[in-house]
Fold each of these.
Amino acid sequence: MSAAGAGRHTTARAEQPRVATLLVGGGRPVRVPGAQVNVPVDLNSTYVVGGPVEYGRHGNAVWEAFEDVVGRLEGGRALVFGSGMAAVAAALSLVPIGGRVVAPDRGYNGTCALLARLARDGVLVVDWVDIEDSGSVRRKLPGAALLWTESPVNPTLEVPDVPALVTAARAARGVGDGPLVVADNTFATPLLRTPLDDGVDVVVHSATKGLAGHSDVLLGVAVARDEALLARLEQHRALHGAIAGPAETWLALRGLRTLHLRHERGCANAAELAGRLAGHPAVTRVRYPGFGTILAIEVGSPERADAVCAAVDVWTHATSLGGVESLLERRRRHPEEPLSVPEDLVRLSVGVEDVEDLWADLDTALRRAASGTPG
Ligand SMILES: *Cc1c(COP(=O)(O)O)cnc(C)c1O
């Protein structure tokens, strides 16, 4: 549907606009006198016969605008979905019945839970691997249908060597058709990583997080270059009804306009906090890959971790990540979280507030938790 509607949108003058220019100028209506500057929210289920889209489950002008920007950021064609998990499920639908998936033994808990469910139901087979150990992943690849990667890993912040994994997957392709390589790029965002350029076949995002960036919508996206794969993902979206609401997509596009600015401040804040936390007496380990807006700390015990989360004031004790506001939570409070995630690990999603306020609040909460003083 994006291709059919491509002529309805323009970008800035440059053939290959730089990232900031693309974020701001992509997916805008064609500039004719009186034209709207923003694509309007298109609230229609059906359209008069003869146009590019006839029914709302197959396309929407707001989807096209959002997909235009995200697709060009990632270097492929994007398809928007109703949530990150809808995009994950679409990518997993590429596995033939009974096919084998090589997947990280810890990673986003929704993806792990879906894979485990599909394995229990006999839909596919899962080989759980330590995704940072490229050698052991490589040994599992011959005959596999799909390799799932996530970089950095949620919430342990490990960074798998995606180019090496792609090379290994390609080498294994002599045996059958697979494995396809899928990368969940939610944590890195296309500002830090464009996995399609590393040879990954499908990129998925929870656009709920950094892309939309304001904790006000759930949305997902899948991006690929291969038209046959895109056709299957698009058909999955339409036939499973895994579609995004036009209003949610509009909000996500509005959020996307400032991704680079939010990202710059969030990354600077995260780097500053990571450095200070490394020397904090109440912190036993800081997990920070050296980039991005997410970090994790270990604080000695789950009780202490809960006490830190209860004692904050500037930070919000809530799940999710990638928004303008700083959030924290102890991940193992979720029963479905992989057991290899430490029980005392607190994930920090660093927002765009003043870093001194973030630090003062966190420092106070950590000291209170360590001394047993109620927050
Ligand atoms: C949140 C998240 C998802 C799922 O996205 P939803 O929008 O919540 O459905 C998938 N992958 C990662 C890495 C996430 O953080």
Amino acid sequence: MKTIKELTRKCIDSLQPYSSARNEYSGKTARVFLDANENPYNDPINRYPDPLQCELKNQVAAIKGVRPSQVFFGNGSDEAIDLMYRIFCNPGRDNAVAMEPSYGMYGVSADINDVEYRRILTDSAFQPDIDAMLAAVDENTKLMFFCSPNNPSGNLIERSRLIRALDSFQGITIIDEAYIDFAGTESMTALLDSYPNLVVLQTFSKAWGMAGIRLGMAFASEEIIGLMNKVKYPYNINCLTQQAALEQLQQRDRMKKWVSQIIEERAGMAAAIAELPVCLHVFPSDANFILVRVTDASAIYNYLTDNGIIVRNRSRIALCGNSLRITVGTPQENAELLESLAEYCRI
Ligand SMILES: *Cc1c(COP(=O)(O)O)cnc(C)c1O
């Protein structure tokens, strides 16, 4: 296994990061804050937020069964994805290997950072072909992306495949678990201490119901988290976001109720959609959405849109021909969708 230091870009390894006022003084005993050129009025948002989000990290670490030093928060998971490229990939030289189809941001972020993105098709059940992914690796491959449960297909990746990648790939393995709360399986965070090159992504945007506050999580070895802290914007998580997340964490019961309601609705929706004459296949889902292959995705998409119902047309994505990705909503919303689909079948 290559060391994290060997994988890190030279300029990042040697980087002297910006040291903010709140980095240099983080004690609790000061009464008078005249160090950061803040406005003394307009409490509490006049103050810069905690650059390392210590309170939030302590609480999330306890919930996730990791150490606070293994936690990073970003402006959405997208910040953590972008940081992987900026920390490990030399523009114009290094590359990333990823399962395809999967989340679009991995490739967009690669393009932005001028990093070659090697897409390796999954099998027809959307399981990654680990042999093919490893065969696509060369000496400049720094990152390998997996998404489990996968977006847009909805399925969990078999654990044995992920373990094989972790055991064989020398670079950084990223496993995006944005939808893990809907899957009822253990998170790969349990393996953090065994694999110092593993990065697990999660988010407040899905199960926690907080897409609007933009808060993503990355879990990794202290060495990787240290690099992420070094490269991120000093105050990347604003104080309103930190406050809202802390409040939501006090209401875990509510989150769990939402998740079980959504899982229950998912089963009902999958069964109902499968009955429709326009439905060719309902892909099994471990997430809060269902991928459905239909007879004519564009026509159905347009019909639903005309009726005020928006789903995602994934037809142009690899292996997703004529497929719609449908998010599980409230029982009322789901009933409206099913009614509209039934109506489409009648005309
Ligand atoms: C929704 C989603 C995310 C979450 O992104 P945020 O930037 O945290 O909102 C991450 N990964 C995948 C695969 C997703 O579908």
